[in-house]
């Protein structure tokens, strides 16, 4: 009988392989994205010391107030602009994009494109 891995297990393996290829540095930190069924989370991380430099999510009251739903493409795009603005305020211009093992389409792509349009380079 063929056993099939769960989607979460496949995503975790993809993410592990991706993380072997790059990591965040002080000059170019990592923009890590996670999405659950209800919310999206984005962090900019310096992996050399393990610090989160900037974070934003759809759970925050300020972000949630601007959104109709917290789990659609529009919410992801808004979150991308929020994380980019916060990063630029801290003086972070370039990042490495870590899609977290999720495929680059839909919400993940919307967040990335919005962050690029708001001024982040990756």
Kindly describe this structure.
This protein has 122 residues and is an alpha+beta fold. Helix content is 40%, strand content 19%. The chain has four helices and four strands. The chain has helices spanning 7-21, 61-66, 73-89, 107-117, and strands spanning 30-35, 40-46, 51-57, 96-98. Strands 3-2-1-4 form a four-stranded mixed beta sheet. Helix 3 runs parallel beside helix 4 (107-117). The chain is globular and about 55 Å long. The model has no long low-confidence stretch (mean pLDDT 96). Residues 1-23 are annotated as: Disordered. This is Large ribosomal subunit protein uL18. Keywords: Ribonucleoprotein, Ribosomal protein, RNA-binding, rRNA-binding.
Distance between the termini: 44 Å
Mean pLDDT: 96
Query: How many E strands?
Result: 4
Class based on secondary structure composition and strand pairing: alpha+beta
Shape: globular
> For the report, how would you describe the main beta sheet?
4 strands, mixed
Low-confidence parts, pLDDT < 50 over ≥5 residues?
none
- Rg, Å, rounded: 15 Å
How do the strands line up in the largest sheet?
3-2-1-4
Tally of individual helices? 4
Strand proportion: 15-25%
Helix coverage percent: 40-55%
- The topology string of helices and strands comes to HEEEHHEH
Subunit structure: Part of the 50S ribosomal subunit; part of the 5S rRNA/L5/L18/L25 subcomplex. Contacts the 5S and 23S rRNAs.
Protein name: Large ribosomal subunit protein uL18
Family: Belongs to the universal ribosomal protein uL18 family.
GO molecular function, one term: 5S rRNA binding
